[in-house]
Amino acid sequence: MVKAVVLLSGGLDSAVAAAIALKEAGGMECAFLHVNYGQRTEARELKAFNAIADFYGVKKRLIADISHLKEIGGSALTDESIEVPEADLSRKDIPVTYVPFRNAHLLSIAVSWAEVIGAREVYIGAVEEDSSGYPDCREEFFKSFEKAAELGTRPGTGIRIKTPLIHMRKSAIVKKGVELGAPLGLTWSCYKDSQEACGQCDSCLLRLRGFREAGVVDPIPYRKKEAKA
After folding, report:
1. Which residue from 90, 106, 80 is spatially nearest to 8, judged by alpha carbons?
2. Which CATH superfamily is domain 2-183 in?
3. Can you give the residue ranges of every domain in the chain?
């Protein structure tokens, strides 16, 4: 029996969420789901997903494609005519890296798959701290989606949306990953580049700050590490 579907982008947060899901599964099987949505680093993220799934020996995998999000556009992650801005961790408004309603698309696929394979949980590594103002990274969104899943699936399906990192700081996530032996060196977080992380986008700076505050060396290569991270 499959206990949970784990959304695994290949990033730091999703890898730690996967490690938590596997621990909580207590020997039961977890299924890993990756979604390509036309993002700039799509190939690199897919590589990270497969490497992490291989590390854990996960056989049940699904790679879904919703590249229509690239056609919809509206985000610097999917529209290359919109420049990925340099990081501003003090920003209060919603940044151009927000992909409109992306997490709803990801969760819809995960819930559909969970219903078919009999999984009762969907894990997603969402974090309110580093949502950069993304409205679909808030806890209230996930609670609302869980209710929608209850209403929109067969009676008795009972799928729960689990967000184990939702209130954690990045440094705590790094420490949790180290504690659980998660393969942090296989993860990829950069919004822009696929060979060396740029070290300048919001995602890179949040990651660098988290590792620094945790007192752990970030194992991935960077082109530039901003001093303000």
Report:
1. 106
2. HUPs (3.40.50.620)
3. 2-183
Q: Which residues 6+ apart lie within 8 Å of 189 measured at CB?
A: 11, 12, 197, 203, 204, 206, 207, 220
**What is d(CA 9, CA 124) in angstroms, rounded to the nearest whole number?**
9
Each residue's pLDDT tens digit, 132-171: 679 999 999 999 999 999 999 999 999 999 999 999 999 9
Residue at token pair 């690199």: 44
Whole-prediction pTM value? 0.96
pLDDT digits (tens, 9 = 90+) for 53-71: 999 999 999 999 999 999 9
Q: Which of 140, 141, 127, 142 is nearest to 202 (CA)?
A: 127
Rg (CA), the chain: 17
